[in-house]
Write a structure and sequence with these properties.
- This protein is an alpha+beta fold.
- Helices cover 45% and strands 25% of the residues.
- Helix 2 packs antiparallel against helix 3 and helix 2 runs antiparallel to helix 4.
- The radius of gyration is 48 Å and the shape is elongated.
- It starts with a helix and ends with a strand.
Length: 351
């Protein structure tokens, strides 16, 4: 009787426990099912993303870097910029002491004036040589006419043979004088050359004057492009040498990313494809990009010491191929910095 009463008491208690266990089992199964579904969705999205995009985080921002060098040598008189300053194309960067170049211009002007003066003297010499030739020709013509008259008179017996010989000698001398005058004329013409602006000496002097003016203009060094001044160590009073780089300007009009994709991804990338660029210095910020070009070889081929794979301990390593991705319409509010890390996703499929 007592045992029957105990079983009757335990029965109502066991039923709720089994119900709770069943509920818990259903909750666990539900959670497991949700986890499986979420995992399947994530796996599908990852697979789908891999089909639509080729991505890499081995990428770095780059831009055109213009090395600034003086074209004249001399001490720096003024420095008009500071390091990391933004400049526009045509802005004055620094000035080289112009005094030696001003003197060179004055000297070149004097040489041009002297050349013009010499040309005038040579022109006058040519005119004088012309006049002398005409005079000698007139004297020759007169001597030849006199020689002919005396020959006729000799035949008539009115003049002696001696007078005829003297007239003949005078005619020959006059002819030789014409030849000498013509030679002097040719020499004067050769010394003069072309006249006016075509004169060689004048052209040389004008070329020297233009070069001197150009050197004077180059004492004022201006920015060839808009951008940011970088690595500036120049100071007033320092001496610069022509052609030696002094500092750089990073062009801010054209940025791109050098993205190093795996060689197994390259077959799906072609120029013109859209891309998304994320740079580490601006987390959460995206930049639009476009594939510009693909390198003709892997990065290791163009390195200073390319690998030598024809060895016995060769191990296959997936190579990286540089791809240039242009940044479309860079945002001035988020200035890019060359050399910073980036992540690039290229849209390789349309759907």
């Amino acid at each position: 009787m007592a045992a029957h009463a105990a079983n009757a008491v335990d029965a109502p208690v066991a039923t709720p426990l089994r119900a709770r266990w069943a509920v818990r089992r259903l909750i666990k199964l539900g959670i497991l099912l949700l986890v499986l579904i979420a995992g399947a969705v994530l796996a599908w999205r990852y697979w789908r993303h891999a089909q639509l995009y080729a991505s890499t985080d081995n990428a770095y921002v780059n831009a055109d870097v213009v090395q600034i060098a003086a074209q004249d040598s001399g001490p720096v008189e003024r420095l008009e910029v500071r390091d990391q300053q933004h400049v526009d194309a045509g802005d004055l960067l620094f000035v080289i002491d112009p005094r030696p170049f001003v003197l060179a211009v004055e000297g070149a002007r004097a040489e041009l004036a002297l050349a013009a003066q010499q040309m005038g003297e040579q022109t006058a010499a040519v005119d004088a040589a012309h006049a002398l030739v005409e005079q000698r020709r007139a004297e020759r013509d007169n001597a030849e006419a006199n020689n002919r008259r005396l020959r006729d008179l000799v035949r008539q017996g009115l003049v002696s043979q001696q007078d005829a010989e003297a007239a003949r000698t005078e005619a020959l001398t006059a002819t030789a004088a014409v030849t000498a005058a013509q030679a002097n004329l040719e020499e004067a013409q050769n010394a003069l050359g072309m006249v006016g602006a075509q004169n060689a000496a004048v052209q040389v002097a004008r070329a020297r004057l233009r070069q001197a003016n150009l050197d004077l203009e180059r004492t004022r060094v201006t920015a060839p492009t808009s951008g940011t001044v970088a690595n500036l160590t120049l100071r007033p009073g320092g001496t610069v040498q022509a052609g030696v780089p002094l500092f750089a300007i990073v062009d801010d009009a054209h940025f791109w990313v050098d993205a190093n994709f795996k060689e197994t991804q390259i077959d799906r990338i072609v120029p013109g494809q859209a891309a998304v660029i994320r740079v580490d210095i601006y987390p959460g910020r995206e930049f639009r990009g476009e594939v510009e070009s693909l390198s003709a070889g892997s990065g290791t081929v163009f390195s200073l010491l390319p690998p030598q794979n024809a060895t016995g301990n060769w191990v296959k390593v997936i190579q990286r191929v540089p791809v240039r991705v242009r940044v479309v319409a860079p945002d001035p509010q988020y200035p890019l910095r060359i050399g910073t890390s980036a992540r690039v996703e290229v849209r390789v499929a349309s759907n």
